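Page 42, continued from yesterday. The earlier attempt failed because a stray header line got pasted into the input along with the sequence. Redoing it now with the clean sequence only.
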Amino acid sequence: MKQFATLFLISLCAASPALADPIEGLWRTAPDDHGDVGFIRVGICGTNFCGVLERAENAQGKAIQPDTLGRKIVWNLSSGDSGEYQGRIYAPDRDKEYMSKLELSGNRITVNGCVLGGLICRSGGQWTRVQ
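This time it went through. Structure tokens are written below.
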């Protein structure tokens, strides 16, 4: 019985938030084509990561209510080597989906996306960690 209790406590500790992946959290996007920024909450979605648009601001820093609030902006993100993640990204300003590559370095993510098998690529700028 003692061994069972010990294993149970160890499993609880292993699931602690201290072991969260570095990409999890709230990120402020780079300004889009209209100067608006989004705040994307990245977390675990099944076996990968995804990010949902939690709130948005215009170029003057005032809250706006785009119809994309609550929408997944990044999904199927899987981690690779050295802070690299690959998956899908949606750009609301262009209403397009891209194959994405996110490179995490400290409290910044460099975002890139491509369509047509990588023939047309676009920089999504740098996102900054808020939380």
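Notes: DSSP finds one helix and nine strands in the chain.
Reminder to self: strip header lines before submitting.
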